[in-house]
Amino acid sequence: MARDMSDKEILQMELDQLKIEVSTTRTAVSVNCKETMEWVEAQTEGDPLIKGVSDDKNPYKGDKGGCIIT
Known about the structure:
G proteins are composed of 3 units; alpha, beta and gamma. By secondary structure, this protein is mostly helical.
């Protein structure tokens, strides 16, 4: 796409992109990290990787036999 464009058109595209980026609201990394940690901690209650799955809801639990290769 850029091969078919003149230098002026490419520079205009870059300028438009920079205008979009400069208008984006920014927040400090520390604020984002705090919010992410709070969200993760709020989600841990229902997370099966942290709490585990109860036996009655676990389809892989129990003795279902095995595979015998003869």
